[in-house]
Structure formats: structure tokens, C-alpha cells
Write a structure and sequence with these properties.
globular; 31% strand; 325 residues; binds zinc ion; alpha/beta; six-stranded mixed beta sheet
């Protein structure tokens, strides 16, 4: 199965957590947290249309300036989603520079702040010197972005400050059945993307496609596409280790194909983890196991463990693959 999302951490697990998700067949990418992003190529930065920020501690937010600088001349707007104070934090960053020479630039930044039951959107336009314009507020259930290809969900957790966790999921995944393609004598081509789009949008059965100068209806082509369960990727970091948070996370990330989760401290430093509102690696492994995720990527380790023989990653994996319930 060809995945719809190609996802990788930008940095090593001892550095700032940032997840880069490329959407296949679209010149587009998503970013989860925006710590140090100097390892991303200019071409990667140009593809980023949406940034999802868990909270604005400096290790999750310092790369925002780098991204804005890279996309100043871009027509496609940038959308940023974050916790209740995200709009003030972005406004503060933009006010930190002088913008008298950018009136001609096309870039627009839409910021969406998420609280327990409300989403509020504000815009910052280069043509308006990045002055803040407040727009609508709408009720928030758990969906923050619905795209034809995927849905992004969020929940608010506690890190002594509100901290969001995110998941990206496809309703279903469409694979092309090569055998059926060959049996029908059909060539591979851009029409396959149109077919997938028609299926995703539930187009009528008589929708037609022209392939090698011949007309085919959607109904005739339906068995070329095989529908399977969609991918789910979750991203959770900087979470206070208490029952309420842990219960909410297990529910939220359940059955993820991949869970990216912090493992800041080792279990031997449990007291420190509680004081700093972080998880221990053992708890990270337990969450992943109880939520029955397929793959766990532990990240965001305290740099103090760099030279340890057993890293938080090892501890998390050991707990994840253990058989205790
Ligand atoms: Zn952090
Ligand atoms: Zn933090």
C-alpha cells in the first residue's frame, strides 16, 4: 500500500521536537510544532501550508521566524493552529520586526486558536503590515481541519499551561489494483488521481473519464480502486503525568499507525518529571501499548541522557513491547 503521508521528525530525539508530514501527490506539507527547523530544505519550507503547535514553549516555537522569512513572497497562505494564547504569541513575534517594505508581498497568515470549546481565527496580511485582524469564532468539537484527503483532530491537555495533542487521519485509503488495471488494458496516468478524487467525493456512478481516447464511467472503473482503512498518525508532547491526561491521551491516540510521543525523563527521574509536567519514558510506552498503536516513535528526550547506555527511547520501547496489561 502506498501511504498518503510521509512523516519524519526533523531533528534527533535529543533536540527540538518537530514533525514534518509530506502529503503524497500534492506539493504540500504539514508541520507539527515548529522548534529549530534549520535542517529543513528551502523547498520543504515552501511546501508547508499548515502548522500545528502544541504550546509555545521556546523549543516548540522558535522556528516560526525561519518559516515566515522563507515564505514571505508566497501566494499560498500559511495557517497556524495552536493553544488559546497562540494569536498573542504570533502577534508578538510579528511585532518584533519592522515591516515598512513588504506591502507588495502576497503572504497572509491565518491563526486559529483552540480552546476547550471554541476556535477563533485572526489574520495577519503583509499588505497590511501584519496588523492583527480578528475574524470569526466558532464552536470546537475535536476537528480543527477537514481536508478532502484527511482530517486533523486536536484535544487540549495539561502541561501546567494548555497543550494540544494532534492526530491526522484519512477516512479511508484508496489503492490502485494493478491486476485489474492490466486486465482492462488501462495505462497508468493522471486519470488515476481524478478517479481517486471522484471516489473520495462520492461522485455519481455515471461520472466519466477519458483514458486513451475512450470513455469509461466511474462504475466501470470502480474495481481498479481498492478501499482500505486510512492511516492515522498522532503527535503528543509535553504532558503532565496525571491520570486525567493519560486517560485522555489513550483514548485520543487509540489504534494509531504511528504515535509520536515525548519521553522526556527516565522512570528513575519520576519526581523530576512530575515537577516539570512531563511524561517518563515508561509511561509513554504504557500509553502506546494500552492504546494499541502499531508503531511508537519516542522523542523529545532530556539532553542529560545523551551519554546514557539506556536512553528514554529504549525504556519506552521496552515498556511498549512488554505483555503487561
Ligand atoms: Zn518541550
Ligand atoms: Zn513544554
Amino acid at each position: 500500500m502506498k501511504p498518503t503521508f510521509i512523516h519524519n521528525l526533523v531533528n534527533s530525539p535529543f533536540e527540538d521536537p518537530t514533525l514534518f508530514v509530506r502529503i503524497m501527490h500534492e506539493k504540500r506539507a504539514l508541520l507539527f510544532d515548529i522548534g529549530n527547523i534549520s535542517k529543513l530544505q528551502p523547498g520543504d519550507l515552501q511546501k508547508i501550508t499548515d502548522v500545528f503547535i502544541t504550546h509555545t514553549h521556546i523549543d516548540h516555537f522558535i522556528g516560526f521566524d525561519t518559516l515566515v522569512r522563507a515564505i514571505l513572497r508566497r501566494d499560498t497562505p500559511l495557517r497556524v493552529y495552536g493553544p488559546p494564547n497562540i494569536t498573542e504569541c504570533i502577534e508578538g513575534k510579528l511585532r518584533g520586526y519592522t515591516w515598512n517594505l513588504i506591502k507588495e508581498y502576497p503572504i497572509k497568515i491565518d491563526v486559529c486558536s483552540i480552546s476547550n470549546n471554541k476556535k477563533s481565527v485572526s489574520s495577519f496580511l503583509a499588505e497590511n503590515n501584519f496588523q492583527r485582524i480578528d475574524k470569526e469564532s466558532t464552536p470546537f468539537d475535536d476537528i480543527i481541519l477537514k481536508d478532502p484527503l484527511f482530517t486533523i483532530r486536536a484535544i487540549q491537555l495539561d502541561h501546567q499551561t494548555p497543550c494540544l495533542a494532534f492526530s491526522i487521519g484519512e477516512e479511508f485509503h484508496i489503492n490502485i489494483n494493478k491486476a485489474s488495471l492490466e486486465a482492462k488494458g488501462l495505462p497508468v496516468g493522471p486519470w488515476l488521481s481524478d478517479l481517486k478524487k471522484a471516489i473520495r467525493e462520492c461522485s455519481p456512478a455515471d461520472t466519466y473519464f477519458v483514458i486513451s481516447h475512450k470513455r469509461y464511467s466511474l462504475e466501470e472503473l470502480r474495481d481498479v480502486a481498492q478501499i482500505t482503512k486510512g492511516q492515522k498518525i498522532s503527535y503528543v508532547t509535553d504532558i503532565a503525568m496525571h491520570d486525567n491526561n493519560i486517560k485522555k491521551i489513550i483514548e485520543f491516540v487509540r489504534n494509531s499507525d504511528t504515535l509520536y510521543c515525548e519521553a522526556y525523563f527516565l522512570e528513575e527521574d519520576r519526581e523530576r518529571a512530575l515537577e516539570r509536567f512531563h511524561l517518563t519514558a515508561k509511561v509513554t510506552g504504557m500509553i502506546a501499548r494500552k492504546a494499541r498503536v502499531k508503531r511508537l516513535v519516542a522523542m523529545h528526550f532530556s539532553p542529560k541522557y545523551r551519554r546514557y547506555r539506556e536512553t528514554p527511547g529504549d525504556e519506552a520501547m521496552k515498556e511498549f513491547s512488554s505483555s503487561s496489561s
